[in-house]
Specification:
homodimer, alpha/beta, Rossmann fold, N-(1-d-carboxylethyl)-l-norvaline Dehydrogenase, domain 2, three-stranded mixed sheet, about 10% strand, elongated
């Protein structure tokens, strides 16, 4: 196996797990975050390397960027202390945030211009799969970039969809997936609470609907959280104003009318505004329950 | 096996298949419809019995009602030539239309008052499964009514969910399922067309998204129709203004705000108003494509 020097920038719930998976695969791995505690934990528990980013940047083969959005990605790459200026020619940027396809193409062009490879590589699967190294990655890149990033893709993903030979294809598919995932979670919340008003208990809802034409992957994954009244954030409400916002930004740019996505986004914004942002995204059902004056399991 | 006298009222795509399944199971079966050609076809091809409804109504054990909505169900049962007045005590009404739960409870009370059993039995699965006798039925009824209807349920359904000991429970679950099914088809149409604007082909959409968290039962069933450009109606657009209309009627009665369902309904109404009503419901994607100025597979 090729042993690489890898830095993961952003040790949130996804980035920390990815960094741990890269280190576990035997690569020399550094983890960086604004949260120094996360960095210390990564060094102490996952075998992360000591060293400041400016001191090791020139030695890196791959930089994995797992931040919140396009603005943070650009800042990490090209900001005041941007890493691109410090990296060696032929090194690779693996960019994992959900971003507009046009942004990904722009980043690729700017990286290529200074001799770096760029992989447009949005991730899917949640923090558990990040820790297990079994994410789904929707990737697009030049063939040489894919080849350079392959050991890191292997360490972090169970499934890598290769969606074209330049940046943008990965981000486009990620946006399509997020549109559906966000809508399906909100539709689950709408339906499970509507059911309560008609005498259908959440437990019966899961039992029957998960075997009917009305089911979805998200329904089967999230509706049990409502049944159990357990809103421990496996993936939080706060993801959705961001990700559906990106989808609608892309849609607006393309003059694409997306009324169902827009309706779902309103529900997530209401959830975030009323104190549910840190809860599991199944808590979207609480917005419906409050509006309808009904109680979900576990609500007093 | 108990050999019953059964009439199926309504020989549309679902009722015809159910009637054929009942006859195939060995019951003496009559089929009735306003369309005399459908009746003649049922007699000629499926072994349906000769005879006018008034002449055989008193001999029936079970009447299966497979009409469009609550108004037609009430008319068949209690209208001018309503069948309830002609049926023998202890006979059973199996009501299969999608109706409000409160309507089902009302029909049950009125049937019980004249000595008839009533099974609230909305159906799911499409015309192919109706023909195969492998529908899903979401049923609720008194135990004696379930027992009396059992041979017909066995002949027509692969799965019978028993959702309570009085009418309403079946219709409530059907409404919940239709809410989700209708939203998921429209969301599929929104996402697959959004994808086109971002360079994601419908074929790649199906390949990738059906293996990701954004998938749904309806997406996997309907999106291939878009890929193939085949809008032969397995289930038509026209179902949805009706069924989502019923969902929102029920919701309004319960003062339940259902913004995602409402947004989906607008798209189906646009589809129906622009000549797509008789097409497969995957044609909802055509509304999005026209609005966005893009072409779907098979569109010139």
């Amino acid at each position: 196996m090729t042993k690489l020097n890898v830095a993961v920038i952003g040790l949130g719930s996804m980035g920390y797990g990815m960094a741990a998976s890269v280190a576990r695969a035997g690569h020399t791995t550094w983890g960086f975050d604004l949260d120094e505690e996360a960095m210390a934990r990564f060094r102490a528990r996952e075998g992360g390397q000591e060293g400041a980013l400016p001191d090791i940047a020139a030695d890196l083969d791959v930089v994995v960027i797992v931040v919140l959005n396009a603005a943070q990605t650009e800042s990490v790459l090209f900001g005041e202390a941007g890493i691109v200026a410090q990296m060696k020619p032929g090194a690779t940027v693996l960019a994992c945030a959900t971003v507009p396809p046009s942004f990904a193409r722009d980043m690729e062009a700017r990286c290529n211009a200074v001799g770096l490879f760029y992989v447009d590589a949005p991730i899917s699967g949640g923090s558990l799969k990040a820790h297990e190294g079994s994410l789904t990655i929707m990737a697009s890149a030049r063939a040489e970039a894919f080849a350079a990033a392959r050991p890191v893709l292997d360490a972090t993903a169970e499934t890598v969809f290769e969606l074209g030979d330049c940046a943008g294809g990965g981000s486009a598919m990620k946006a399509v997936n997020q549109l559906l995932a966000g809508v399906h979670i909100a539709a689950m919340g709408e339906a499970i609470t509507f059911g309560i008003t008609q005498g259908v208990t959440p437990a019966k809802f899961v039992e029957v609907i998960s075997r009917c034409a009305g089911t979805s992957w998200m329904l089967e994954n999230r509706a049990p959280h409502v049944v159990e009244g357990d809103y421990t954030p496996r993936s939080s409400i706060n993801i959705w104003p961001k990700d559906l916002g990106i989808v609608l930004d892309i849609a607006r740019e393309a003059k694409f009318s997306a009324p169902i996505t827009a309706a779902a986004l309103q529900q997530y914004m209401t959830a975030a505004a009323t104190g549910l942002g840190q809860e599991d995204d199944a808590a979207i059902a609480k917005v419906y329950a409050r509006n309808a004056g009904v109680k979900l399991p576990g609500q007093a």
